[in-house]
Amino acid sequence: MKIKWLAGLPLFRMITAVIALVLIVTVIPYSESRGVMPEAAARSHGFAAAAPAAQAASAALAASAASAVSSAPAASRTPALPTTPVALATSTALKTPAASTAPITSTAPAAALTTSTALTAPATSTAPVASLAFAGSGAPAAFGALAAGAAPSQESSARSSFPLTESDKTLQPESSRQFASHAKPKEASKVVYLTFDDGPSKWTDDVLEILQKADVPATFFVLGEQAKRFPEIINRIDEAGHEIGNHTYNHKYDELYASFGAFWSQIKETEEVLRNITGKRTPLVRAPGGTYGHFDAAFFQLLEQGGYKVFDWNLDSGDSRRRGVPASEIIKNVTSAKPASSVNLLMHDSAGHEETVKALPKIIEYYKSLGYEFRPLTPEVAPVQFAVAPKMKNSKRPQPSSEWIKAHIVPNAALFGPGEPLYIEAGGVETKLAAGEYELQGGQYRVPLRTVMERLGAEVRWHEGERSAVVTWGDTRILVSLDDDLIVVEVQGEIAASYTASLDQKSGLLWLPLRTLLEATGHSIVSVSANPEERRVRAS
Predict the structure, then answer these.
(1) Mean per-residue pLDDT for 44-64?
(2) N or C: which end of the chain has fewer CB within 10 A?
(3) Does 349 qualify as catalytic in the annotation?
């Protein structure tokens, strides 16, 4: 009997060891995870859902452990805590409170902390453990599936059946946060507008390349004569998504500021050059040399009334103070200025400004380091404008008459405002006139000769001395005399035909009735229609 009892003693010890091992593997880690992070444990319904599978896996583990204990040497029967480092496998940040000092311990080999969302331990937490998901080779299959993200996730399906608490709202799936990124951004606290004047030139392409690499927008105030010389660069500026502004035609102060009419004429000339290249008009205007000392109150008022937005600047890079200003000085001028919440930076991309190109990357880097947002100027941006100089308050320059203002300024605003476009179909060709590019007087459409005929494919030439225009359209030649209110049409092999018409000149363009123009070119009007979206004239 004594011998039998002694023989049973090793068996009793082995059973006790197996029970203890099962308790350590299954019960203690689960209870610790609930005790360490009660909020996380309360939300992690996946553990409760996985409990039956875990228990089954634990039973299997107990059976294999009993076999291992019975066959192992006596010295190996007391399990030791693993010394394998714990791997933190997180898809988002795992925040640990500063007061948390308890080390992470594990009773299974190669334990991995796996979190699918950002978890913040509560202030009372004494260990940085959210939940344990066993991924080691000796881990139960159920826990291994959870760590591997088996689908469908029991945790996510269980959570979806419960209402969200305030703390749950911070633990949304990754896809929810991706949708949140499309929300409208807050108004930037610091904005910089990079502007370049007097171009385009051979240096403009270098500027465009730098802007593209830095992924920042800019605004180019271009001269009409330069745009006419480099139309392909204007297209590249436009296609890159930058804004284009009007910097007059030739930048000559003595011509520009002799009268408002002279300034207006250059603005309109450049506007047409840009429209012919890009198909668009720009309401953005910058005066050569700035408005101070050049504009009187009437300049500001009339340009605004005509639909334009005048922009000066509040920071000068100094790249045009003299010839060949070095890049180091340009950078110093910019970075030494007191940072403002909104910076409208003046630079130049014209001939002789290669040092500006060299300085530009450093300037962009500087504003990025300060957290500025880069934006182009638009009509919606509040413009920076210099005050009227004292000497200009009593300017003796001739002022435009009320008749001139009515004929030029008032209708011009419609070019940039809402309104129905006018579509003209003639000879199988269709063209579009924006609101402001045509007029409706006494039930008749009046249109600018050059605008309509060039868009229909004709060539138009104006002879200032004779105050007449010559239109060449295929085999047809049209002579329009402003002073005689006469239109003469010559077709090869046919007798010339004459038409009288009410002609006038506005904004440098010759205007006439659309019906007269179409009939003179051999196209009789078939139909006229109008609706809230468009107006349309169809001719044969």
Answers:
(1) 42
(2) N
(3) no
